[in-house]
C-alpha cells in the first residue's frame, strides 16, 4: 500500500513554480535506495520510502522517514548542547500533542538568537533568561541545524527561520572563520581544521567581498581558489558548516509531507504573530517587543556596500539557493501572498535576475550524498546497513588506492578494539586517520591484507558486511588494555582541558566515574571501588564495577570491551587475530591465511599502544593488580577464546600469549570459570551495534560464543 505526498498549496508571486518531487511510501520488507547519478543500489530490510534524487526542479524535500530523533538515530553520538532546551524550559517539551509539535529549522547565518528565545541553550545568559511569551516556545521541542537532525518526522510543523540569501551567506562566512586557529584545531580535529584552512588561509577569502573579488571575478587568482569559491556558494564542497548547510539542504532535509511555517528575520514580530495565530487558533494580544540578534530591518546597510559587479557575481552563484529561499516562502502556511511578495521585492533590489527567474545558469546541485552524510539516511553499501547510522570518514578508504570490493572468499573486516594500537594498524590497512592524530602515510602497504580489508568496526561504528570471510581482531593483553583505556579516558588528568575539547555530554559521562568518584588512578579505583574493603559510596562502587565489566558507558574505551566486539560479529564467523605484542608475525600469518605470500620484509607501523599503561604499571600495587585481574576474569576468558579461534595462530602462538598474560593475571590466565557470570549485553548490542527492526537478537546463553544469533521477526 502506498501513500502519496500531499500537494503544496497554490504558489504565489512572480509565477514561481512549486515543483515538488513526488515520493511514495512502501510498507514492504525490501526497499531500493537509488541515486540518479549512479546505478548502485542498497537493499534496506526496513519499511522506508524511496528517495528520488536530484532533478533540476526545486525538490522541497527528499521524503525519508526515520523513527527517532538524533540520539536514537546515531547511538554513538550525543546531541550537541545547543540543540537541547534550558532547564527552565524542560516543561515545554512534556505533554505536547503531535498536532502542535514544532521542529525548529535553524539555518546558520539567519538569526542565531531565535533558538535561544525559543528555549534552546545559547551562550548569552540574558537571552536564555528572556524566553519569548506565547505558544511557540512551548510547542517547539526539537531542532534541525546543519548535520544535526533532531526532528520527529511526524512533527506537526517545521519552522524555518530565513533571511535575505546574501545576508545569510555573508554572516555564514564570518561565523565559520575560526577566531583562534590553534584552539579550533585542538577542539575540532585535523580534518575540520584543514577544511577551514583550505578556504580561509590557503585562499584569500576573509569576507564575502574578498570571495567575490578574488574568487569569482576574472582575474589572476589561483584556479583552485576560484573553484573553492564557487563550490562554497553552491554548497557542493564542505569548508564550514554554516556556508555548506544552506537553504537547499535544509529544505530537502525535512519530510516531504511536513507543514512549513517561516519567520523572516527582517519581519520577525509580524511573522511571529502569524505563527502564534496558527498554533493558538486565535490572535494573541501578547506584547512581542523583544530583542532579536541578527534582525535585518536594514538589509542594504548590512551587506550591499559591494560594487554592482561583485554583487551580480554573487547573486548569479547563489541563484539555486535563492530559488530554495523563495520556495520556502511560498510553502509557508503562515505567510500570505502579500508577505511573500514583500520579501521577493526586497530580494529584487539586490538580485533582480535571480529573484524573478525560476531557472539558473548552473544546474541545481544534486545533494543526494550530502543529505545521506549530513542529515542521515544510512550507509550506501551492497549489503546490510544498520538503522541509518552515519559512517565517519576514518572508517573509509581511498578508492583510488584500495579495492572497494574484495573476493568474497577472502574479504576481511577489521575489528578495531580500542587501546590496542589500532589507529596505526588501520593506517597500514589503508583507512583514513581519525583527524585527532597525524595523517596516515601516503604509501600503500604491500600485500593482500590492505586490499582485502574493506570494512571496519570500531566502538559503535559497525560497518562490517555480515558475510565477510574473516573478521580481523586487533587484540591486546586485557590487563594492559584496561590500564591504557582507563588512563586514556581519565578526565581527572586535566579536567579543564578535557572540558574544553569534549562535548558537554561526553565530559559529563566521564565525570561520573573520574571526578564525581575518587577514581583518579586505577590504583584508587581498585582499592576504593572494587576491593572487599572499598570505602567509596555505594554509587561509586557500583560505577567502578560497571566500568570494568563494560555494562555502563562512563568511558567509550572501557565500555566497548572484548565481549562487546566478539558478540557483535555474526554467529560462528571466522576470526583472524593480530596480537599487539606480536604484530609483525601475526600480520604475515594473516596475509598467508587469506591467500597472500609470506613477506617478512613488510614493516608494520606500531605506536600509541603503551601510552599510559607501562609508566602507570609501577604505581599499581600487587593487591590492586590481583583485584583488577579477578574483575577482568570474563574479559580474559573472551580474550583466550579469540586467540584459540584465530585461523592464523597456531597452538604455540596462543600459548605464548597466555604465558605472557600469566605475568599479570596468573590465576585468570588458566582458569575455566569465573566467580561472576558473563554479563548479558543484549541491550548494549541493540543500541550500539545495531540491528534491523525486523531482526531479533536471540537471548544470551551465559556462555562465551563467537557472535550472537539473530532471527527475523515474522510479520
TrEMBL record:
Q: Which UniProt keywords apply?
A: Signal
- This protein's superkingdom? Eukaryota
Record's signal peptide: 1-30
Stated name of the protein: Sulfotransferase domain-containing protein
